[in-house]
Amino acid sequence: MNTINVINDTSIDIKEINDLKIFVDFSIKYLKLENIVFNVIVVDDKKSHAINKEYRNIDKSTDVIAFALEDDNTFIELDIRILGDIYISIETATRQANEYGHSLKRELLFLAIHGILHLLGYDHMTEEDEKKMVELQEMILNDYKNS
To answer: Model's pTM, two decimal places?
Structure first.
């Protein structure tokens, strides 16, 4: 059994929030994940900035931050995998959607799958790792679009 929460932690009415929930469920099924727990929390730039500064020592807002609990060797293995939290800034996502010329929905879905893959240990620190991550992101987004 999976427990995934998609939370709007802003005062902004986000009409795409249900689309985000549906896509997150699709992604979990696509990746054949079972017995997992994680949260997708949509925040504003102010909150994103505060999180980024406190935990990454970067003094600005960012689009997505993933806190992967399994990255730490001190996590306890259970029957349920508690993966962590993904924070998405709605304001940064909106700006990026406009810059890239696509919908806010598409940007939110991209940021969500990017965060999910980070929770699962994917990264983009090397060119080879980035290629794997980007390919998987695009496969999931394309399959969702065609479903």
So the answer is: 0.92
